[in-house]
């Protein structure tokens, strides 16, 4: 039990709680726009950036972030080229990211990279710089979403209507992409690149079961994610389980519960 | 196109002016050199076979597509200079939203207010009132808290019309508003928009397949034909009426008028 009061666990908890707000929020917009797989894609590309960061000796999460940003622009470009097959561009960029990551990992000969830590998360190794970065990203996301929740709603629900209303849709699309890239690259250390997308999509899946209004769905995703992150971290700490995996399995358990419970109601 | 002489009544201002517009989808020409104008308080029915470019034309007018050549003016301004997008209500052909989308009818109707001038503003009391009036006018106030996907096709169409009306638009653009709606609801819908045309300062541009409705309200013959498109036009009142038009018709009045008419029809029948 003393793990719960330890310094590294407290840091993990703070980082987790912050990500538990931003990741599901951005995930909600992506899922509602039928872009669920973007989370996976960006995180896989980020891993390539992280690996490159280790090789060239630059703060890995920052390089990962640059890669994620580059990937969002590449996806947008490809999406325009294959208009009605948007998911194709996502699949291409994703495999490209993994290929690049494996290439970089093979180049690195020193003992430097903890590959596993980035694939499956290493929340207990969060240092002050990581936490500061997560804090800044959280602030940016909350300000941007708080300021433009109306417009983001309209663009998510009906992009044409948003354009006819004279809203700068390109600017907002770009904003969603950039915020998502930011959130994903800082989440990697917490749940791992392979599991990030769960934190984006499963809360949104829960909200589709529960919420009637958009307002409710925003609240639902954050509550669901926070419950999973906090309970998951405590369980993982007490029973010495993998934190990322525990959080994700808890999310899935909550979704299953919601689905079965709803079936009984209706 | 030269400008109209000054002594022309105010109501004959051109609301939409399409000049020499051509458009092609991947080198296949959809329309070539189309020109026409829609004047204030016209009701224009746009008819054409499949592929004649009706929807394309509407999408160009609202700025979702760019013409390959030619210009489109709205309220006398070119589209690039035009900033009064909140004066235009647009109801697209099919709202292909996901039926599970978590949004209530009220949230959808309210979103008609989210435009550039509202970018950094919160939703005010006045906005909420407008929303309630739009819901009321379309008789969907009872459905306001429902998820939009739970509504029937006709109810959804009303919700999207309410969204288009919430800004008190001067121009209403409807793309096949009654597709997939049962006949009875269709008639109610046409009654409603005819009513809006006659009693409110709204100019209509509507694509429709329903020739019965077009003929009964807009006449037997197209006023104009350009390319494969036929335009049926009806002006809503005599020219002299123009200046007296009450511009502040509220949506509330709309509902009251239609309720009153219905009541009189009902009492007359019994």
Automatic annotation (TrEMBL), chain A:
Pfam families found in the cross-reference section: ABC-3
InterPro entries the UniProt entry points to: ABC_BtuC-like (IPR037294), ABC_TroCD (IPR001626)
Predominant place of localization: membrane
Biological-process GO terms, alphabetical: response to zinc ion; transmembrane transport
GO cellular component: ATP-binding cassette (ABC) transporter complex
Membrane in keyword set: yes
Keyword terms of this UniProt record: Membrane, Transmembrane, Transmembrane helix, Transport
Compartmental location: Cell membrane; Membrane
Transmembrane segments: 12-32, 44-73, 85-105, 131-149, 161-184, 190-211, 218-239, 245-261
Topology within the bilayer: Multi-pass membrane protein
Family designation: Belongs to the ABC-3 integral membrane protein family.
Protein name: Zinc transport system permease protein
Automatic annotation (TrEMBL), chain B:
One family name in Pfam for this protein: ABC_tran
Domain ABC transporter stretches: 16-251
Keywords attached to this entry: ATP-binding, Hydrolase, Nucleotide-binding, Transport
GO molecular-function terms, A-Z: ATP binding; ATP hydrolysis activity
EC class (word): hydrolase
Keyword Hydrolase part of the UniProt annotation: yes
CDD domains found in the cross-reference section: ABC_Metallic_Cations (cd03235)
Coiled-coil segments: none
Taxonomy, superkingdom: Bacteria
Enzyme Commission designation: 3.6.3.-
InterPro entries assigned to the protein according to its UniProt record, in alphabetical order: AAA+_ATPase, ABC_transporter-like_ATP-bd, ABC_transporter-like_CS, Metal_Ion_Import_ABC, P-loop_NTPase
PANTHER family named in the record: METAL TRANSPORT SYSTEM ATP-BINDING PROTEIN TM_0124-RELATED (PTHR42734)
Family of this protein: Belongs to the ABC transporter superfamily.
Name of this chain's protein: Zinc transport system ATP-binding protein
């Amino acid at each position: 039990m003393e793990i719960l009061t330890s310094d590294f666990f407290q840091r993990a908890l703070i980082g987790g709680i912050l990500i538990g707000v931003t990741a599901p929020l951005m995930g909600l917009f992506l899922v509602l726009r039928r872009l669920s797989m973007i989370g996976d894609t960006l995180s896989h590309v980020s891993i390539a950036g992280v690996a490159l960061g280790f090789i060239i000796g630059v703060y890995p999460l920052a390089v990962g972030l640059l890669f994620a940003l580059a990937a969002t622009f590449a996806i947008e470009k490809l999406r325009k080229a294959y208009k009605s097959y948007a998911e194709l561009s996502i699949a291409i960029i994703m495999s490209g990211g993994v290929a690049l990551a494996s290439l970089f990992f093979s180049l690195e000969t020193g003992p430097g990279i903890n590959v596993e830590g980035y694939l499956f998360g290493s929340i207990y190794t969060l240092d002050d710089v990581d936490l500061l970065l997560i804090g800044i990203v959280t602030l940016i996301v909350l300000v941007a979403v708080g300021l433009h929740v109306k417009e983001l709603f309209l663009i998510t629900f009906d992009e044409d209507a948003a354009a006819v209303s004279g809203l700068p849709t390109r600017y907002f699309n770009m904003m969603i992409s950039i915020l998502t890239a930011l959130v994903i690259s800082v989440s990697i250390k917490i749940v791992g690149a392979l599991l990030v997308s769960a934190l984006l999509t499963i809360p949104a899946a829960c909200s589709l079961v529960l919420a009637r209004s958009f307002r409710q769905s925003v609240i639902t995703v954050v509550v669901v994610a926070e419950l999973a992150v906090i309970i998951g971290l405590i369980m993982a700490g007490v029973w010495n389980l993998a934190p990322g995996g525990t959080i994700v399995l808890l999310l899935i358990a909550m979704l299953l519960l919601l689905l079965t419970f709803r079936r009984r109601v209706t | 196109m030269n400008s109209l002489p000054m002594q022309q009544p105010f109501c004959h201002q051109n609301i939409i002016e399409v000049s020499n517009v051509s458009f092609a989808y991947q080198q296949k020409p959809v329309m070539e050199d189309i020109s026409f104008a829609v004047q204030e308080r016209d009701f224009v029915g746009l008819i054409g076979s499949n592929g004649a470019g009706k929807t394309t034309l509407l999408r160009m007018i609202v700025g979702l597509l760019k013409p390959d050549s030619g210009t489109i003016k709205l309220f006398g301004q070119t589209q690039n200079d035009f900033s009064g997008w909140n004066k235009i209500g647009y109801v697209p052909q099919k709202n292909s939203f996901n039926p599970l989308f978590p949004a209530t009818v009220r949230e959808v109707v309210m979103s008609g207010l989210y435009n550039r001038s509202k970018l950094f503003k919160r939703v005010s009391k006045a906005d909420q009132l407008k929303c309630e009036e739009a819901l009321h006018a379309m008789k969907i106030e009872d459905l306001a808290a429902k998820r939009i996907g739970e509504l029937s096709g006709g109810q959804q169409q009303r919700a999207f019309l309410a969204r288009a009306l919430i800004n008190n638009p001067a121009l209403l653009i409807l793309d096949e508003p009654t597709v997939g709606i049962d006949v009875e609801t269709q008639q109610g819908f046409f009654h409603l928009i005819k009513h809006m045309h006659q009693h409110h300062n709204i100019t209509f541009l509507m694509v429709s397949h329903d020739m019965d409705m077009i003929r009964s309200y807009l006449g037997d013959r197209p006023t104009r034909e350009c390319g494969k498109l036929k335009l049926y036009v009806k002006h809503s009142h005599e020219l002299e009426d123009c200046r007296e038009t009450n511009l502040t018709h509220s949506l509330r009045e709309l509902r009251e008028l239609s309720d009153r008419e219905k009541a009189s029809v009902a009492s007359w029948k019994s």
